[in-house]
Amino acid sequence: MISGKNNELIKEIKKLMSSAKERRQRGLFAAEGVRLCRDALRSGAHIVYFLYTEEAAEKNKEDFGCIMSAADKCICVSGDIFKKISDTGTPQGFMCIIGNKLDTYITEIESGKRYLGLENIQDPSNLGTILRTAEALGSDGVIMSVGCCDVYSPKVVRGSMGAVFRIPFMIVEDMSEFVAYSGKIGIPTYASTPHDAENIEDTDFSRGGIMLIGNEGSGLKEETVRLCMKRVRIEMRGRAESLNAAAAAAILLYKFSL
Amino acid sequence: MISGKNNELIKEIKKLMSSAKERRQRGLFAAEGVRLCRDALRSGAHIVYFLYTEEAAEKNKEDFGCIMSAADKCICVSGDIFKKISDTGTPQGFMCIIGNKLDTYITEIESGKRYLGLENIQDPSNLGTILRTAEALGSDGVIMSVGCCDVYSPKVVRGSMGAVFRIPFMIVEDMSEFVAYSGKIGIPTYASTPHDAENIEDTDFSRGGIMLIGNEGSGLKEETVRLCMKRVRIEMRGRAESLNAAAAAAILLYKFSL
Predict the structure, then answer these.
(1) CA–CA distances in Å: residue B173 to residues B115, B130, B143, B184, B213
(2) B151 and B91, same structural domain?
(3) Which among B243, B235, B202 is positioned nearest to B219, based on CA atoms?
(4) What pTM, to 2 d.p., does this model score?
(5) Is A124 domain-assigned?
(6) Are residues A163 and A228 in the same domain?
């Protein structure tokens, strides 16, 4: 059992929890909590390390056994050490370190399918919630600009309730270019924007395509909006200036999925 | 200028930031950030204290002047002290302490209007987002059970983007009793629940009434669901077991507002 905080592996894991650069360089990310670890296992993710506390192993015997037998390496750590590596206030004592070569990368977008495009979503809680919503409403995949926050950050993984293991996704350098490319191959693109846009109640989404949502503060880039086939908006009735990005995404994806 | 952290007022404000009990007993709550302070002022809230840093006052002269002249008492604090009382990672240097006798309490629900009912929503970010969504989509008011997290907590106030100052609300001891009462006076009530429920696409919401949403983990209480006029659900297509409460609320309120 590891109980010293200066252990090399513990130091590495703390870095993985806090640094997107570290996650990218190592090709690893963390999933914390009993449910997320189970989700990782069921999704066929490659579990490189499984860290657990004795107490958590005792309490979740069945999950413990399954994850243990699938992981490359299992490491028991003290409760104190687990608290140090945990990203949550009340750690459950289970953490999987996962290789990010998942089978969920989109290599080509297909006609007739329904994708979500996210440009520069900054808040990890928003991104996690949006991925969860996209999965629940049956999106065929999510395309993210590199300017979005790291999809493998602990908050995104947790907020997505495991959707990050399952929903196909793709990360693109420039969303405007991707929208232009989609247009060329005949995939409809919808820019969600409050200005000069059609009410989503009046839009025919039956051909599918890509629903684009922009940054929390500034929305989609002008260039991206300009290149989209259509501009769509959610009708507002109140005094609030706007919806939270995750709330807007829920409504847009719901209409898009009907 | 206050620069000592042992100042009595600073200690009181730290308590107000962290304790719902303290907020209730004192009848005060905090709004932090330039935009929220401006919102509080515009909404006619009673600003008991206005705390600011010199730097923030310099940077936001117009807002500073307006808030200053409306507040009972203005207190300049050092940047270090502001960081100590702030609930955010990057404090803007403006904070209003507000008397919670707002003019937004609902005293009676009315026929034909559209209300949101929240039973035991636990997460302050969810509650804040839901209030913001309710306002943006034109809800006539929000009814919350006492089991919901404190509507005046800094996270809720911030997440609501000021909706907490404007949207009419009411806090009820027992949501089931309130639903029963609403039924008796002819107000339709809709329980959002995945079980034995009608697809919201098929429901006629034209009479308005109350849309009820339950706790993040356990949903609405059985008793509350049983007493509602109708059960409604959002059609799920994916593998995710459920939507986040704020995402579900956005879709339900959107359909309810059409």
Answers:
(1) 17, 20, 11, 18, 16
(2) no
(3) B243
(4) 0.91
(5) yes
(6) yes
**How close A123 comes to chain B (CA, Å)?**
12
Contacts of B134 in chain A (CB under 8 A): 238
Q: How many domains does chain B have?
A: 2
Q: Tell me, what's the ipTM?
A: 0.90
Domain annotation covers residue B104: no
Domain that holds residue B95: 8-99
pLDDT digits (tens, 9 = 90+) for A177-204: 999 999 999 999 999 998 899 999 999 9
Q: What is the pLDDT of residues A77-122, one digit of tens each?
A: 999 999 999 998 889 999 999 998 766 788 889 999 999 999 999 9
Cβ-based interface (< 8 Å): residues of B facing A? 125, 129, 132-139, 159, 161-163, 166-167, 201, 234, 236-244, 246-251, 254, 257-258
Choose the closest CB to B138 out of A137, A138, A237. A237
Q: Are residues B250 and B149 in the same domain?
A: yes
Integer Cα distance of B124 and B113 in angstroms? 26
If asked whether residues B120 and B179 sit together in one domain, one would say: yes
Separation CA B191–CA B210 (nearest Å): 9
Structure tokens at B196: 């034995």
Q: What is the pLDDT of residue A238?
A: 65
Of B60, B75, B99, the residue that ends a domain is: B99
Answer yes or no: is pLDDT of B85 > 70: yes
B195 vs A123, higher pLDDT: A123
> Does residue B105 belong to any structural domain of this protein?
no
